[in-house]
Amino acid sequence: MMELTVISPLNNSLSLSHPQRRRLTAASCAGSSSLSEVRVCTNRTCRKQGSFQTLEALSGLAPPGVAVNACGCLGRCGSGPNLALLPEGVIVSHCGTAARAARIFCDADKDVLRNLEALALRKRAESELERGNFSDAEVLLTQAIAMSPSGGIHVMYKDRSVARLGMSNYSGALEDAKEASTLAPQYTEAYLCQGDALMAMEQFDEAEKSYSTSSQIDPSIRRSRSFKDRVERLQQKLAAADIS
């Protein structure tokens, strides 16, 4: 069982009894509105105990609205990988497997299994996307979405949007990208996918709005090569449309 402790304002740790652990576990499920962020220690000791793998698993399992970020030492070296659940200030120790990571967001065994199976399908689909096997990726992502996982489903819709765009199913790609943004309104990738689908549909003004929304949510993406390439292609299309 994972050990949970509460961080005091002075960064001292107070051990919790078993009943307290159960209450905190339930409060930290995906259905709770209180959990807003999970921080994963990636300092040296936790890193050796697999915290980067835990960080990757949590990022794939997190429901919309729950941020997953790396952080420095949480003061429980030797008990890692260690996580901090915010804003409650709860530390979870010994979270070194995907199954334990899944229990941060759900408690029932059947829910943990469903989320892990859906995540595995998504990872397979992403490998197919990298190979350009868009139809295979779409099948896998459709299976993952049908499992109704409690976390990561907005990423699955985004990935399926990419697959459908690659298959020239532009309306399907746009529909999935919009669903991803509905599930996670601050998810920049969803708006980029909307823009890509709208570009393919030659709805350039609407594509510009989608790209603009993504950069407003996260201004740092304006420096990325992929975003600059999108803007350049869009400007070329708009210029050509003006000439014609």
What characteristic shape results from the CA principal axes? globular
Content of β-strand: 5-15%
Spans where pLDDT lies below 50 across 5 or more residues: 3-32
Number of alpha- plus pi-helical segments? 11
Provide the CATH topology of the largest domain.
Answer: Serine Threonine Protein Phosphatase 5, Tetratricopeptide repeat
Architecture per CATH nomenclature, i.e. the level-2 architecture of the largest domain:
Alpha Horseshoe
Write a concise keyword list for the protein shown above:
244 residues, alpha+beta, Glutaredoxin, Serine Threonine Protein Phosphatase 5, Tetratricopeptide repeat, 2 domains, six-stranded mixed beta sheet, 11 helices, 58% helix, 11% strand, disordered N terminus, Thioredoxin-like_sf, TPR_rpt, TPR-like_helical_dom_sf
Can you characterise this structure?
The protein has two domains: 3-102, 3-Layer(aba) Sandwich (Glutaredoxin); 109-243, Tetratricopeptide repeat domain (Serine Threonine Protein Phosphatase 5, Tetratricopeptide repeat), CATH 1.25.40. The chain has a six-stranded mixed sheet, with helices on one face. Helix 10 runs antiparallel to helix 11 (225-243). The model is unreliable at 3-32 (pLDDT under 50). The chain is 58% helix and 11% strand. By secondary structure, the chain is of the alpha+beta class. Strand 5 (83-86) and strand 6 (90-93) form a beta hairpin. The longest helix is centred in the middle third of the chain and has 23 residues, at 109-131.
